[in-house]
Design goal:
The structure is a single chain. The protein is an alpha+beta fold. The chain folds into 2 domains: 97 residues, 2-Layer Sandwich (Phosphorylase Kinase, domain 1); 227 residues, Aminoglycoside phosphotransferase (APH), C-terminal lobe (Aminoglycoside 3'-phosphotransferase, Chain: A, domain 2, Alpha-Beta Complex). The protein has a 6-stranded mixed sheet with strand order 1-2-3-4-6-5, with helices on one face. Strands 7-9-10 form a 3-stranded antiparallel sheet, covered by helices on one side. Strands 8-11 form a two-stranded antiparallel sheet. The N terminus and C terminus are likely disordered.
Length: 351
């Protein structure tokens, strides 16, 4: 099967011609690169006599060996078999080409002004549905940077800070090094030292399977489309088993489309339903929320690291923000403060 008959939009993504002949599909009449991905190459495949599909070619690098393709495909298989239809349907996996086929879902990106109580409820409902039959998801791997102990939360964030610290040595033209030396690192050391005894006390405690959740990871309105009033959730390459505490904190700390802080009690309530000890869950959220905030400061500054630059090069994505702008946003996130609702204030409706 050849793709020369397809009307290719102007693009330098030449690998698509090598992948499509190995897929169980007819020759596309048009291959259209889709924008918006910062990690991968994504194409809409249009056909004469069947619905459009999406071909996703995943970024892989020796510096980052996370199995993005397998994580997303298996997660979508589990979610689809669970009856969820507000996601792309997974069709075909090509491991030799590190690519997969999915149904094409139409929709518009969500803007901050569009977020309302109804959309928040859909996010909560999606998480609840994912975990109704989580015992059927044992074939899923752990989520990216999954944390099942208090110590792991601290280790993941410190690893990111140290990596960013190394990258700052190569960026003397901006204030990254000053930000790390005088703001991020002192805040990190202060917080880590404050809870050193707690870390030592719980060093051997691992979260049980019954208290873990199936997590979409990188979860929020930034990875969703809207059709009318209905959300369609996309992009699950970091998905898998995780602590619901981390899923919740990530949801409220990710900066792309901020999740309304007023929804924190309701989300806390929903996530706590999947734990055997809600009181312990509340305390864990309060303790690790600032840790996750600092982790997201580092994620926002990934563009300064080598792996961040490699991902952008692979996906051919344009930088939406200048690095200096990202640095400003990271500084704002660091200064926001602690958990929106203290853990001792039980959310309404939790018994």
């Amino acid at each position: 099967m050849k793709t020369k008959a397809a009307m290719l939009d102007k693009t330098d993504q030449i690998d698509v011609d090598k992948i499509i002949p190995h897929l169980p599909i007819p020759a596309p009449t048009r291959i259209k690169p889709l924008s918006g991905g910062a990690n991968n190459r994504v194409y809409k495949l249009e056909f004469e006599d069947q619905p459009s599909l999406v071909l996703k070619e995943y970024f892989q690098d020796t510096l980052d060996q996370r199995p993005r393709m397998l994580s997303e495909f298996l997660f979508l298989q589990y979610a689809w078999k669970s009856g969820l239809r507000i996601i792309p349907e997974p069709f075909f996996l090509s491991q030799p080409h590190n690519a997969a086929l999915y149904s094409y879902v139409d929709g518009l990106p969500i803007t901050p002004d569009r977020v309302d109580e109804g959309l928040v409820e859909q996010v909560i409902h999606f998480f609840l549905r994912l975990n109704e039959n989580k015992q059927e998801a044992l074939n899923l791997s752990d989520a990216s940077e999954a944390c099942f102990s208090l110590r792991e939360f601290f280790e993941v964030t410190e690893k990111r800070i140290l990596r960013l610290q190394s990258a700052s040595e190569l960026h003397t033209e901006c204030d990254l090094k000053l930000f790390i030396q005088h703001e991020l690192w002192p805040r990190w050391l202060e917080y880590k030292n404050r809870y050193k005894s707690k870390l030592d006390e719980e060093s051997g405690k691992i979260l049980s399977m019954s208290n873990r959740c199936v997590s979409p990871s990188d979860f929020g309105f930034h990875n969703a489309l809207i059709q009318g009033s209905q959300l369609i959730f996309i992009d699950f390459e970091y998905a898998g088993w995780d602590d619901p505490c981390k899923t919740l904190c990530d949801l409220f700390c990710q900066p792309k489309i901020p999740f309304p802080k007023t929804a924190f009690p309701d989300v806390l309530n929903a996530f706590a339903k999947f734990t055997e000890d809600p009181e312990s869950f509340f305390k864990r959220v309060e303790l690790v929320y600032p840790v996750i905030q600092m982790k997201w400061c580092c994620i926002m500054l990934n563009g300064f690291t080598k792996i961040g630059r490699n991902r952008r090069t692979f996906s051919h994505s344009e930088e939406i923000y200048y690095l200096e702008k990202q640095l400003l946003l990271a500084r704002e996130l660091l200064q926001r403060g602690d958990v929106p609702v203290p853990s001792h204030r039980h959310p309404k409706g939790l018994n």
